[in-house]
Amino acid sequence: MALTLGRKSGEKVFIEDEHGRNIEVEVIRAERNVKHALKLRITAPQEFNIVRGEIYNGNNS
């Protein structure tokens, strides 16, 4: 499943798992036509691994 949407600075998206635990993704900065223009804050329970895409190896090890 995929969801594509736009968010402005300060807006949030919540992802909830089957146990009711939430991951909160907040846009900290969103600017057009500027390098490194998007910053996100991800808040999740400690049991969740948060890994940048460029270092993710496709499994949870």
TrEMBL record:
GO biological process, any: mRNA catabolic process
Gene Ontology MF terms: RNA binding
Entries under InterPro entries matching the protein: CsrA, CsrA_sf
Gene3D superfamilies membership: Translational regulator CsrA
Highest taxon above the source species: Bacteria
UniProt protein name: Carbon storage regulator, CsrA
Organism: Lentibacillus halodurans
Lineage: Bacteria, Bacillati, Bacillota, Bacilli, Bacillales
